[in-house]
Write a structure and sequence with these properties.
Layout lengths: L3 H4 L2 H12 L7 E3 L6 E4 L4 E11 L11 H18 L3 E11 L5 H18 L2 E9 L4 E11 L14 E5 L4 H11 L6 H4 L5 H7 L5 E4 L4 H12 L1 E6 L7 H10 L3 H7 L6 E5 L4 H5 L4 E9 L4 E4 L15 H4 L2 E3 L11
Parallel strand pairs: 4-5, 9-12
Antiparallel strand pairs: 1-2, 2-3, 3-6, 4-6, 7-10, 7-11, 8-10, 9-11, 12-13
The structure holds magnesium ion.
Amino acid sequence: MTSVKELGGEFALIDLIARTLGKSKDKSVVAGIGDDTAVVDFDEKHYMLLTVDMLVEGDHFSRKWSTAKQIGMKAMEINVSDIAAMGGFPKYALVSISLPEYVTVEYVKEMYSGMKSIAKKHNFSIIGGNTTHGEKLVIDVVVIGLVEKERLCLRSNAKVGDLICVTGNLGKSTAGLETLKAGLKGNVKDHLEPECRLKEARIISKHANAMIDVSDGLASEVKHICEMSQTGATVEKKKIPISRNTFNLAGKLKKDAYDFALHGGEDFELVFTIPKNKLKKIKTKCPITVVGKITSKKQGVWLVDGKLENHKTKPAKTTKQNRKQKTPLGGGYDHFKQF
Ligand SMILES: [Mg+2]
């Protein structure tokens, strides 16, 4: 018998499931397992996007510091984030909940009012679901969306030479979570009420090649894009956008804010790749930061600490002196690590 940890963790498990199921023979399936959502043909102009994400008490949220409303909001927002990562917009949601005895009716009502507020914010409808009894509070949300065919942003579409960009700031959710766990004071709103980038995604998807949302840390998301697109990448550590609040919280915790950004989870920002000449078209409309570049597969996937290259010149040669500053990019939040 093999444990998931022995298999290699969450992504090895997803790979095993995908291989067990095999590819769908249905011609209407455009993308199955392996992207932020599944993609199926819908009508002449649109693809349909389907995604599901589960929150388990103790693993994804704690009733110690999140209110019922915040838990409901998060359950919905993280699914919308996956729809955003494909370039689309949400239309419908279904919600299944498993309730332990200690959860009251008033609590359930608050959770659903949180979900409803997110549906209202992003203009979609919650139209069904399922309820059951269980030992832990579990919320499982399905969101169905649409995307204009020309705007679909798959993880597999990054091109050599593309710039790697991110929206907003990274590391903020993990900084908040670690602060709460340590019992310290500070601004932890980004952890308790994460906001996805649907509005920005609708602008970006007109011009980007590949896109993914940041649910498991920047390192892991860039690696996913590279694996699916058969490319390499260079990410410049010092260019990763991190807010002053995150640096402050990391300082209090005596931890590295860059580690939160690279390997933490649940920022729900977007990472996308875009040809350099299209960057101007979105830069004025939403806050983005260029953090690196897509390279050929044989060049590998690297995190560069220090000024080895800039985007106006050719990549600098790897010398003895600067080799130390390059580290392979990898690792991310893995739900099975703790087992
Ligand atoms: Mg995702």
